[in-house]
Design brief:
The complex is a heterodimer of chains A (394) and B (108).
Chain A lengths: L14 E4 L3 H12 L5 E4 L15 E2 L6 H21 L10 E5 L5 H13 L5 E3 L1 H4 L13 E5 L3 E2 L2 H14 L3 E3 L4 E7 L2 E7 L2 E4 L3 E3 L5 H6 L8 E12 L7 E4 L4 E5 L4 E6 L19 H14 L7 E12 L6 E3 L7 E5 L5 H18 L4 H5 L4 H4 L11
Parallel strand pairs in A: 1-2, 1-12, 2-8, 4-14, 12-19
Antiparallel strand pairs in A: 3-7, 4-6, 5-6, 9-10, 10-11, 13-16, 13-17, 14-15, 15-16, 18-19
Helix pairs in contact in A: 1-5, 1-8, 2-8
Chain B lengths: L2 H5 L3 E3 L4 E2 H9 L5 H8 L12 H12 L18 E2 H5 L18
């Protein structure tokens, strides 16, 4: 992997990808794999420096809409094969996801979700609180009302995933420029002409906007108005412990989630109803807040009292790129040939990126509309065909 | 002892046992910034949170890249300054205290 941080960019390319996170790199890799010769990735900071490298690394199939379940299912298969596919260890581990609730009124929805997931061949089961102890022995189940568990969900190390994609991209001839900003997307007469970067102009007939929380700002450069809003979310890591926790534990009651990494750390976060949002990317404030550390520590020690004496090592924050229905926005826009976006993952880009990159690359190279991309295109908000998923957590 | 085996006995990060040789290897593999070197090698992620190794590592990286140490961008410093237990954190009174943890961020 040799990301370039100096020198001029090539004068022309078959496709320019904006953003060196999971979506940009997976798409670049798949485009190169399907035969595109000159693919260039432009990353403003370093590989994985945006939302990908700040995420919790979870990959789950427990959703409440069939489309989300099927996408996530495809993604789990992609993660199962990823270390082999990329020739790089990405530390994918299937310890399962245990989704818990403290509210009786959630139980019908949990049972309905299990039925739908089982119909899609996702092996989720409904658990009574005491059955959770077989999966996480020291969980405090006194307030739990029920849970669902899918043993094939899991976690991967986000940086290893983007490094693996970057290396595979490099082998496939993709050029990756880091520390390089995109100043403008160029178009004329309804066609994409390329991008203007800090290191010069690249003429290209295809531009893919994978800029995560900066995607709305990028899209605006060619007059595309995305409804995404950008929200701060925080997360932390503890000291390393011997293996004690198989699954990701996630509460649909208060939005806490935590898992144990292969280095032994507890990695976890908690949603906050008061997370700030900013219109202008220049205002994004990803400094950590003590409020998060305290709220997380309270929720963790309540649910898992044995963690009380474990030390928190670091906390950090990242941005979610959130859409009105919490589902990604994929595809192009009418009247602007060559422009594509892969954004709006609402906190789930890491778990869906390998699949959306593959489907988008296929649609871009073959011109054949993909069924799922079509249903997740930007015009759904005008048509009012929204299908929100009930399990948006964290 | 050859220079190579000596480099494998010099610990750059004593908390996470990262040797000078591993640091050089990571650089060769394309990790040319402190942020990426930290995440690839684990350097600076142990109990001292980089207080004992980051400036040393930055000096080493400056030499590898032919730059002045002052030209090397260090990693973002993450709170807390010292590791705290979840019990200690859970006991803090948010209403009474300052909610800004005072960290730097985020030139990245």
């Amino acid at each position: 992997m040799i990301p370039l941080s100096s020198g001029p960019v090539p004068a022309s390319a078959d496709a320019v990808i904006i953003g060196g996170g999971i979506n940009g790199l997976a798409t670049a890799y798949e485009l190169a794999k399907s035969g595109l010769k000159n693919v260039v990735v432009i990353e403003k900071q370093y590989i994985g420096s945006g939302s990908t490298g700040r995420c919790g690394g979870g990959i789950r199939q427990q959703w409440t809409t069939e489309e989300n379940i099927r996408l996530a299912q495809e993604s789990v298969t992609a993660y199962e094969n990823m270390s082999t596919e990329l020739g790089y260890q990405v530390f994918f581990r299937q310890g399962g996801y245990l989704m818990i609730t403290e509210s009786e009124s959630d139980l019908p929805a949990l049972r309905t979700a299990v039925t739908l997931q089982n119909k899609c061949n996702v092996p989720t089961e409904f658990l009574q609180p005491e059955e959770c102890l077989k999966i996480v022995p020291d969980l405090d189940i006194s307030r739990l009302k029920g849970a669902t568990f899918c043993p094939r969900d899991g976690t991967a190390y986000p940086f290893a995933v983007v490094w693996g994609y970057a290396r595979a991209c490099h082998r496939a001839g993709v050029k990756i420029f880091i520390r390089t900003g995109v100043q403008d997307i160029l178009s004329d007469g309804g066609r994409i002409l390329g991008v203007e970067t800090d290191r010069g102009r690249i003429n290209a007939p295809v531009v893919v906007n994978c800029a995560g929380p900066w995607a709305r700002h990028m899209a605006a450069k060619v007059g595309v108005d995305l409804p995404n809003r950008q929200e701060r979310h925080e997360i932390m890591v503890s000291e390393s412990l011997k293996p004690f926790l198989d699954p990701m534990v996630i509460s649909i009651t208060n939005g806490i989630y935590f898992s144990q990494s292969l280095r032994g750390e507890i990695v976890g976060g908690i949603g906050d109803p008061d997370e700030p949002q900013w219109e202008d990317p220049a205002d994004f404030d990803t400094r950590s807040q003590l409020r998060f550390a305290v709220r997380f520590a309270r929720a963790l020690t309540q649910l898992y009292p044995r963690a009380a004496d474990v030390r928190m090592m670091r906390q950090w924050a990242g941005m979610y790129d959130v859409t009105p229905d919490h589902r990604p926005i994929l595809g192009g826009v009418p009247g602007l040939q060559g422009y594509h976006h892969i954004c709006g993952f609402s906190g789930h880009g890491f778990m869906l990126g390998p699949v959306t990159g593959k489907r988008m690359a296929a649609q871009i190279t073959t011109g054949q509309p993909d069924e799922i991309i079509t249903s997740l295109s930007l015009d759904r908000f005008e048509k009012g065909e929204l299908q929100a998923d009930a399990f948006v957590v964290g | 002892m050859s220079a190579r085996s000596a480099a494998n006995r010099i610990f750059l990060c004593r908390c996470e046992d990262v040797t000078l040789q591993e640091f050089h290897q990571a650089y060769k593999e394309g990790f040319t910034e402190m942020e990426s070197l930290k995440r690839y090698t684990g350097l600076g992620t142990g109990f001292c949170q980089g207080k004992g190794c980051l400036s040393e590592a930055a000096g080493e990286l400056a030499e590898l890249r032919g730059l002045q140490p002052s030209e090397i961008r260090l990693t973002n410093i993450r709170p807390p300054a010292e590791p705290l237990t979840f019990a200690q954190l859970a006991g803090l009174d948010l209403a009474a205290g300052d909610t800004d943890s005072g960290n730097q961020e985020d030139g990245a």
